[in-house]
User: Fold these one by one.
Assistant:
Number 1:
Amino acid sequence: MSLKVMLLLAFLITVPAHAWTISVQGACTDSEKWEVKGKVPAEMLDLFKSIPTDPDKNIEKLKSVISLQANSHRERKIIADFWFFRTLFQLGLIHPSQSGFARVASESKLKGLGSIQRACVQCLAKIHTDRRHLPFSKQETNALLQIPMSQIPHSIEELFWELRARWLLKQLSEDEPNQPQPLERNLALFESNNQYKFVAEALVLLQRGEKASMAKRLSELLRNNRIPASFSPIADFGHLVLARLEAENAQYAAALSEYGKISQRSQWYFPALLESAWISLHQKNYERAIGLVYNLHGSHVPPSLTAEGLIIASIAFSETCYFPEAKRALHILKKAFSDSYGWLDKLERSKKQDLYALAVNFVNKKHMLPSPVAAEWLRSPLFLAGQEEINLILDERQMLETLLKRLIPLLDIKGKAAAAHYLVEEQKHGHLRESALISQLNRDLSIISTKMFSRLRERWTDGRMIEIEILSKAGDEMRSQPSQNDSLAAAGFAVWRWGKQAALSLENDEIWADELGAFRAAIKSKCPK
C-alpha cells in the first residue's frame, strides 16, 4: 500500500473515558482529525483540536500538555502523554516520539484507553513507513503484536501485515543456531493463507540452508505473483536465489532465465549481470559475456563488480584470440584498482577500526581515499541507511536545544523540572543512539572493505594467470600463423610489448547498444581452426 493511499484512508477509534468518547481519523497523518463526544473537561478538550502546523503553537500546546501531565490522574495523564509525544512528532522529533508512542502503547491495565494505545501503534506504523531504516524496539514489538488483527481497520491492514512480517524476519534472522525459535509459533501470527507468511517461510528456509524446500516455496510465490508489492525487492532477490540454485545444478539456461527477470532498478541487477556473464563465459558464449560486461560499466555499479567484469572480458578476449584487447582489459584493471588494492591491504594489516571517520572526512574533503573504495563504502545501502539516521539524530539534537530554550521559560517550577528532565534525557539518548550507530557503521565498513579486498586479491591472481596464458597462446598463434603478427602490427600494437593502449582495437560495429540501451557484442574468434 502506498503512503499516499494510507494518508487518504482513515480509521475510527472509539473508547469510553468516563462520560465521554474519543474518535480519530488518520492518526499521525496529514488527514488526522479528532472528534470528542460527551462531557469533556475543558482542559482536555483543547488537546483534541486540529493539529497545529505552526511551531510556536505546538510549543504552546506542549506547555498545556506538561501541566496536565503533572496534575492529572493516571488515565488522563496517559492521554496527556500521548499528546506530548504527538506534538514532538509534529515538531520533527522522530526518535523521542517513537520511544514515547511505544511506551504508551505497551502500557498494561489501562481501562478504557485501548483506542489511545491503538492510535500510538498507528503513529508508529507511520514512522516506520516513512523511515524504513529505523529499528523496532522491544516495546514497539509488544505493542504491535498484542493488538489482534481483527481490531485493525481494513484500510491499514496491509501496512500492519508488513510491519509484523518485517519484525518476524528480523527475529528469525537473529536466532541462535543451537537455540532455534520455533517457526510455527512465529508464523502463527499470520493467517493460514497470508501472503506475508509465505514470504517469511521461504526466507527462513533459505536461512536454514533447506535449499530444495526454499526453492519450491519461492518458485510458487514468484509464479503465482504472491509477493506483496511492499516487499517487491524480495521478488528480485528470489529470482537471484533461484538463479544461483539452478547454476549450482548446471541448469544454465534456467539460471539465465531467472537472472533476466530481475528489474533494472533492483539492487540485485548488477550482481545478476555479473553472474550471467560468468555463465556465458563458461558456455563459451563470448559475445554475450562481453556484452554483459559492458553493461556493468554504469554509474551505480559497485567498483568490485567492475573489477570482476574486466577479468571476464579479458578471459573472453583471450579465448577468442583478441590478445591486445585482453591485455588492455587487464591494464584497465590495474590502473583503476592498484591504489585500492594497496590501500585495502594496508588497512587489513593495520586492523584500523574508525572507518566511519575516514568516510566522513572524505566527504568533507579532509582525507583522501581511493575512489573505488570510497564508492564501495558510500554507495552501500548499509552506509546510506545508517547515515540517514545519524543525520536525523543530529537534526533532533539541534531541535531539542532550541525547544528547551523556548519552552522552559513558559513553565512553572514543577513543569520546568519535568520538561527539563525528559528533554535532557532525550539528548543523552540521542548521543547513545549516535554512538551505537557509528559503532555499527564501523563494523559494516570493515566487512565491506574485507570483502572488497578479498575480491580484488582474487582478481589480481586471475590477472596474473591470464597474462601468462595470453603470452603462451599469443606465442603459439604467431608461430602457427605469421599473418596474425602482421595484422596486430598493422592495427598499431607492438607484439610482445603491448603496454598501455589508448583504445580497444574493436571496430565500431562489433559492440553496440540495442534499442533498450543494453550492449551487444559481435565478436568472432580470431583463433586458427
Number 2:
Amino acid sequence: MRPCHYRCNNAQKAFSLFSFGIGMLFLFGTAFFSPLLVRPAEARDIYVRLAASPPKIALSSDGTMTLTDSAGKKHSLKKSAALTRSGASAAVGKKRYSLPARISSPGLLRYNGRKYRGTFLLTRSFVLINVLDVEDYVRGVVPAEAGSDRPKEYLKVQAIISRTYGLRQSLTRASRGFDVTDTTSDQVYKGAGAETPLTDQAVRETAGEVLTHENALALAPFHSDSGGHTAASSHVWTEDIPYLRGVREAVAYRSPNANWTARLTAAQVQAALKKMGCDVGQVRTIRVAKADSAGRAVALAFTGSRGTASVKASGFRIAAGPNLLKSTMLGAPSAPSGKPAQTPFPTDITAKTPTDILPKTPPAARNRTPDRTPSKTPAKAPVPVSDTPLSKIEETLLTQMITDGVFSPEELVDMLKNLNKKRGYLYIGRQKKAEAQAPVTQAPVKAQAPVKTRAPLNISALLKMPAAPAPAESAWTGRTSSGQEIPVENGVFVFRGRGWGHGVGLSQWGAMAMAGQGWTAGRILEHYYPGTAVKRFQ
C-alpha cells in the first residue's frame, strides 16, 4: 500500500507553523530577529489587548474618567460609562467620540470586573487595550502565572522571563496593533487586582532585569512540568535555538502530572491527523518513529488502511488536544504490582548542592541582585491555568470531588478566586483520588478484606521528596525508544506519559523545587536557558 508521506509533508509544515503560532506565539518574528536593548522609547510601555470588538464595553473608575478622542479633544465620562461602536466612533448614549480614543483616570480603571493601572486605548476596530508601564504589567502577570505564595526566588524567575517576553513582543507591535493578550496565548495578566505584597517584592527586586542572549532579548518559553527533562526547541517547533536545548531536571519532585494516561479512539487519532493534513484511513498502529536522547517522542508514525504517515509528535499533541495528550514525554507505565509509577530521577541529584551541580556562573550571567536567603515558605505546585471552560461532565466531577473533601480549604478558596484554575484543580483532584485509591502493598487483596489506601496527595511535601530509587532491571527505564508502539487496549490507543506542556525552556515545577532548595533566580535561569545572561534593560 502506498505510503502517504509526500501527501502529508506540506500540510504538516503548515499545521506545524499554525499550532506553533497559536500555542505560544513565542517565535513570532523572533528566532533570527535580534531586538537590541537600547530602544526604551518604543518598548517601555506594554499594550495588552483586553477585548476584541465586543458589542459593548463598560468601563468605570473611582475617579472621573477622561476620554481623549482622535482629534485630541478631552471629554468627561464621569465615573462609569458604557461605550458601543457606531461606525468609526464610540457612542455613550447620544454622544459620539471619534476613534481611536484614550481613556484615563486619576484612580484605577475597571473593566470586566478587574482593576487596571495605566490607561485604556480604544482602537478604530473597537479593540480595548490596556497601555501601562512594563513593571506594572509584570506585577499583574507574576501572581497570575506563578501564584502568590511561592518561594521568592521562583517568583523572581517568573518576573524576569515575563518582563522579557512582554518587551520582546513590544518590538513587533506593528504586526498586531498590540503587544500581548491577557490570556495563555501569551501570558495570563489579571491587572492590578491580582497584585500581592510578595509578588510585588519579586518584581521590585528584579526591576528592569531581562534574560538576554548575545545582547538581545532572549526567547524564554516556559511550561508546567517537563516530566524529568526539557525539550529542544527544534524538536517541538521549527528553529534550533542554542539556549533552548533539552536539559535534565536538577532537583527531584513529583507533580500532579508525574504520570498520566490518555485514551484515544482510532476515530480521535484519525481526526487529529486530518487536522494536520494527513489521512491514513482507519488507524491500526502507532509507534514512536524518533525519540530524543532523554526519551521524549520527536516523531510518531501512523499506519492505517490507506497508508502510513510520520508526523511531529508535538504537532500531533496539539491536534489531539494539549490538555488530553499532556506532553510528548511518552512511555510512562501503568502502575505495576499495585504501586504508583515513580518519576525516574537519578538517585544522586538531590545529594548535591546547587554549587556542586552547576559550574561557576560567570559575572555576566549572574542576577544583579545580591543573593538572598531563600524563602522558608513551603514550596507549592503551580496550579495550571486554562481559559477553556469545563464541560458539564467535568463540572459534575469537580463538584463531586469538592463534596468528597478532595481539596483543602486553601485550595477551595484559590479555586473560587481564580476560575481559570478549575481545570488544573480537576486534574489535581484526579491525581489525588488515584493516589488515595492505590493499594500500599503488592500482595493480592483477599475477598472482603479491607483495602489499605494511601493518604491524599500532599503537594508541598512532594516537592521535598527524595529522588526516586533506581528501577529494577525488569521495570520501565523511563525512556521512550524509537520503534516503541503505543499499546491498544479494547480497541483504544493508550498513551502514557509524564509532565505537562510543550517541554521547552523552564519547567515551573522544576524551578519551584530548585528555589525551595536554595537556588537563586540567576542560577535557575542559567540551568533552563544555558548560555543566557540576566541584564538590566536600559
Number 3:
Amino acid sequence: MSELIWYDYSPKYRWYNDKLFIIMKSGNEIPHNEIDPSIHFRVSSEILAHPSGAILERDLPDDLLVQVRPISVKIALYKQGKFEHKETIYPPSSGNWYARVEVGNQRAILISQRIQNSRKLWLTIIDYPSGKILESHTIFPYEAEALTPLSDLEMLLESDDEKRNNILSELLEQPPPTWPELYELCRGMEFPDLIITDTMGSTLEQLLPRWWSALVREEASAFLAILLRKRIDTDSDPIGFLGKFLPTPTLRSLLALHLKHLILETTPINWLQLFARVPDAYLSEMTASPFSIYGRPFLGAIYDIGGLDVLIKYILKLTRTNEIPRGLPITREQAMSSPQLKMERLYLNHWGLNIHGRVNTESIGLSRYYYIGKAHQWPHRHLAYVTVFNNPSSSQHRETLLHELVLPARAADIILQKRPNLMQLDWYVRHVNPKNAYNLSSAKSISIPRIVETLQKHVSPRYFRKRFKPLKSSQCSSLTDNDIRVMDALSSTLWLSDLEHPTIVGIPIDDFIGSLQNLKDQNVIATFYWGIHIPDLQGIIIIANAPEQTLLSVANGIFLNSGASSLLKIKDSNIGIIQGIFHKSLISQLCASLNEMAYELNIDLTASTVVTYHSYRSNLFSRLWKNGGWDDNVSNFLSQARMNW
C-alpha cells in the first residue's frame, strides 16, 4: 500500500552520494526516482525569498496536491540572503528565483513536481547540503523546462561533488601545522594574529586574503597543506597526479604551476607573497565558485606556467592528421623518459587540449534553426546555445539574443506557425587558428583595415568550400544509445586526457572510439581540437544579408584572422551569421569599422560584440532521444508568450 504524506510545505530531502533521497513519513529514505507516483503531499502556503534576505511564508488561495516524485532534480548555484540583482530573462520568473540562480555563489538543489489538476508546477529550492528550504512555490511550465537542459557549467556542478568533499576533508581536517612548518611557509611575511587552531584548514585559512570566496579559500588552503606535508610526487606521471584533483579546479591549477617548478628544478614560488598581491582584475573571478573557472587559472600569475607554444603545435598536428587520439599526444611512457616531454604533457593538460565535435544534424533527422530577438528567453529542451550580443555602434546599446534550436521536422512545423521568422541552417563551416588565439602578441597585431576591406571584395563559393570544407550532407543508417552519448560528449568539451581512462561517459573506451569513428566515417560528426579559452579573448558576431560572394569574402577575412570562427549560412536566403574570437582590445574598433564601411557601401551587415554565451549542448541529444526517436514536444517553448494564462 502506498504511504501517504501530508506535510505543510513539502517532504524532507537529503542529498547523499550524488543522489536526492526523500524522507518518508515513516522515516524511510527513498531515492527520488523510486518514489511511487501516486503519493502526493498537501500544501497550503508557499515560501518566497524576499530581496531583503528574509524568507517569507504566504498562504495560498486554495490547498494544492503535489506529486512527491520529482519531474526533475538539478544542482545549481544560488544566491541566498540580501539581493538586488535585476533579472535578465523575460517573462520574469515566479518570485524572482531565476535571478538568484543567474548570480548564484552557493550550491542549491532545484526540484520541480507536478500539481494535481493544474498546468503549473511546484518548485522547491533547498540548500545544499543542509536540506533547508529556501523557496517553495508554483511556477509556469517553461520555468520547469529550464531545469531540464543543463548548461555545460551545471553538468560540471553535478559531477564529482562527493570526491571534492573527500579530497578537501582529507587535507583540511588533518592535525594542524607546527610553528616551524608555519615559519617555513611564511618566509618574509608577517601574520601577527596567527594562531594554531585544532585543524590544518582553519589554521592555514588565516594566511589567505579575506576577500576571497569561501570555495576558493578552501582549495587554496588545501594547496598550502600539500606544500607543508610535501605530498607532491615528481617522479610519476604529472597528469596521473593532477587527475586526482579534477573535482578541485583551483587546487589543481595551483598544483600544476608548482609542479612545473619542481620538474624544471627552478626557484620555488613564495605562494603567500603571490596571494597577497593578486591584481584587482582577478577579484571578480575569485568571488565566484571555482567551478566557473574550471580547468584554467584563477589568478594572473598562473599564466607563468607557459607552454602555449606547445599547445599550438599539437592542435595544428592533430588537425592535420584528423585521427582520433587515444589520449594526449604525449603518452605516459614518453613523459617518463624525459623531463622535457613530462613538461609538455603537463602543459597540454593544463591548457585543456580537447576534442570538440560538430554534429551534422540533417543526417540524423534533425535540423538547426536560429532565432534572433528577445522573446523565448527561457532555456528549453531543444535549445543548443544562446549568444547575447550588443551592437556598439548603436546609440541604444540594446542587447539581442541569438538562439540555436535543434528540431525534428514536426516540431519545426509547429514552431514556424507561431514564429515564421525562425531561420533554418543550410550549411555550416568552422575554422580554428590557434596561433591567433594563444599567441597574444600576434592576436593584438591583426590588421583591422585588412578585415574591413573584405566588404569590397568577392570570394567564390568554389574557392571557399575547397579551403574550409563544409560538412557534407549524408544519411546515417541508424543510431545507438552509445552514438547519442558520444555526440553529447563531443558537443561540449572532451579533454584528451579523458580518453586515457578505461571508460568514458559510461562507455568502455574501445566502444567509445569505435562509435566516434563510425560517426565520422558517415559524416555525422566533424572533429576539431582546441584548448581552454583565455580571458583575453572576446567574441564578435556578424549578421549579414548580402550577396553570397560578399558574405564569403567577409567570412574568409574573419576565418584567417580570428582564433576560432564559424559561418552559418541560412537556407533559402542571403543571410549568413559569422562568429569569431579576437583579442579583446580589437573588438570595439573592429565592430565599429565594419559597421561604418557596411553603411558606406549600403551592405546590410551588422557587427556586434558578444556579451555572454550559454551552451546547453552537454546533454542535448540524450534529452531529445526518446524511445528510439526525437522528442517533438515544443509546448513549453511556445508557452513562454504566456498566452492562455
